[in-house]
Fold this sequence. Notes:
The protein is mainly alpha-helical. It has one domain. It has helices spanning 2-33, 40-60, 65-86.
Amino acid sequence: MVSEVMAQLVIPGVLGGLGGLTRGIVGLLKALSLRRKILWFYYVVTVIVAMIIGVFVGLIFNFDWRLSLLAGYAGTDIIEGIYKSFKVQKVYVKRGR
């Protein structure tokens, strides 16, 4: 019973998290090279979300470890893209003259 739960939930979650960590490391290296501020809370949240995505993909596709790993990587990338598209940005309007 315990090994069945581990095979269906924990392992896909860990693999999804590993995919999210891999994506996060790529993002961290990019941020460091561009000398941007690193948001550690955002990094942790994306890894946790990647773990959740890995579990769902593992459940849906009857646990194919490659899909859980890929879903963690790609899912984090997709969520980051969605976040950036809805992020409020300042708009400056040039005054006349």
